[in-house]
Design a protein that fits this description.
Distance between the termini: 10 Å
Oligomer: single chain
Strand order of the largest sheet: 1-2
Shape: elongated
Strand content: 5-15%
Number of strands: 2
């Protein structure tokens, strides 16, 4: 999201990407503590995959501006 001041200066607000990256980092750390192959591991692995995709899309959206 961007915003503009009255003199025409445009500023970028990348806060949404930073939050998503932080969440991804936290979930990856949780995943590393699970036992491979368990049901909780597989559920969390899917969640981490979705977060990776989300961050990827956010980075692409930012670069196209």
């Amino acid at each position: 999201m961007t915003f503009c001041t009255s003199d025409g200066t445009v500023y970028e607000n990348p806060g949404y990407l930073t939050r998503s990256e932080r969440k991804l980092k936290r979930e990856q750390k949780k995943l590393s503590r699970r036992q491979k192959g368990s049901n909780r591991y597989n559920r969390l692995r899917q969640k981490v995959n979705r977060l990776h995709a989300k961050v990827r899309r956010q980075r692409q959206a930012r670069s196209t501006r």
